[in-house]
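Thread: "does anyone have the structure for this chain?"

Original post by V.I.:
We have the sequence but no experimental structure in hand. Need at least a predicted one for the grant figures.
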Amino acid sequence: MRSLAVAVPKSKAEEVRLSLLASGLLRTGVAVTREGDTIFLPVVRETYGPYPILEREFEESFTPIRSYKDVARVPPELKPLLPTSFDVIGDIALVKIPDELKAVEREIADAILRANPAIEVVTADGGVRGALRVRALRTLAGPNRTETVHREFGLSYSVDVARAYFSPRLGTERRTVAEQVGPGEAVVDLFSGVGPYAILIARRRQPRVVYAFDANPDAVRHLEENVRRNRAERVVPRQGDALALLAGVEPPDRVIIDYPQDPGPAFSVAVSRILPGGTVHYYEILEELEREDRQRWIIETARSMDRGAEIAAVREVHGWSPSKKLFAFDVRVT
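Reply from O.Q.:
Generated one for you, tokens below.
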């Protein structure tokens, strides 16, 4: 096909390409061509710049945007500081903006929207805070809303990302835990949030019951909706203090403690209630060198309660900070 093009020296081609892309002038769907040391960049209309404009033939192709960094309108010296990844929950992106980029945070958000058609809202993620584990968020681009629907393993979860905890990075871990559940088990998810562990287990395995507890009323409201949405009738949602609620139900075969900031008290109560041969899924944020100490603590804590404990598996779930990681411990209690 014929198209207008900018004739650019090879040494300047990438710089000009990014500038044209950011300004919406680069024609997509056609291949860039080269003759000697000159690169011809197809454009949608004439541009005003230092390089000549001409018309020539191009081959059609598909050239997707590989990264929002390609279209981020930020000074070149800030490009290396741009976040390399961000969480996406439903159609909402949650981006951690370092202090050095606060002045261009809206330009970053606009670039994420342009490069990711499935994303409609971009928020600045200030991290998870408080006992209810809610995120401190600010909307940077798109409509000012925090409710969305997240899809995972064929199931869908309604969630308000500013009012209830949900982590898309735990999807694989949730599946790993669910695959361990045997027929007829009674399962307790102590800090269930909007229900991704509990509902996945109820729908993909054959438990007798899955109790899903959370102290956050907003989380439980979405949990109840998600139980209906996914027809997960074996999930029993309850709002309140998880440890008190655990004391009020039948001894379970399996307990999930997805509360990595301070899981110790919950582990002690879980060990006191779980059936012999049951499994506790314990999560904690640790330095690599702390892992073996935590394993010893788990075994000694169970022993102090006249119970036995065996570490059946340890998994590094994902990084948390430059020095810390989220670890999962599958603990078999006798």
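V.I.: this helps a lot. The chain has a mean pLDDT of 92.
O.Q.: and Residues 57 and 111 are 30 Å apart (CA to CA).
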